[in-house]
Specification:
By secondary structure, the protein is of the alpha/beta class. Helices cover 49% and strands 12% of the residues.
Amino acid sequence: MSYDNSCKFLAEEYPTDFVRWLLGIETEDVNVLKTELFLEPIRADSVTFLQTKNRILHIEFQTEPISKPPIPFRMGDYSFRLKRKYKCPVTQVVIFLQETTNEIAFTEEYRDETTIHRYRVIRLWEQDSALFLNKRGLLPLAPLTKTDSPTALLNQVAQTVATISDIREQQNITGCLGILAGLRFDKDLIRQFFREDIMRQSVIYQDIVQKEALKWVRLIINSRFGEIDASLMKRIENLSPEQLEALGEVFFSFSNINDLQAYLDR
């Protein structure tokens, strides 16, 4: 989903903002862990691991409270694996983006006959918006925070974004905002406050376009030629969104897989 891409981008691009918010410490020494902990895939909206000098911050962003395995069990599973691998304390925070009354959003422990494991839960709709307006990495989450006037808050966020002088950073922040604000606001209202051409230039938007284009190209290739060689598919996956679009336009002129190979060899 586009929400998980946006949240993961923010946490990994602005790790110190998240460490200050969730751990309450000032540090520039934060590493984003790119680690494979699992013997099998575990479904979560978005998972990020940040490592400070003596602690790991495990962040999960959730739009829905229901998942497989359930969130409480998953948090216990992550915790044990992280501690075994990195041998340091772990702080775990589940951040719910979209308002819900489901009990999972108000549950902060996993419990069974022999185990009690605790973690933190943050419900964005209960959070003071002021904190999020003052940090670039948290700004795209601000429209989902507590307010008596959601439209006024969205306007305030837009004004704050307009003060970002670095055009690339402004594009990326706007792209994340356009996606996350969609959890609370109508698309037409979002377009009133954030220019669509700027959103389209963000790395998040481009990533979404890339994935959707690749999904479509993969579908038509499989339906026409069946499973293709992994190395050939890898080359297709490395194409830009524009190249994937061009491939889609000429694909049905190919008689066989050799024509596709020849096209890529050009």
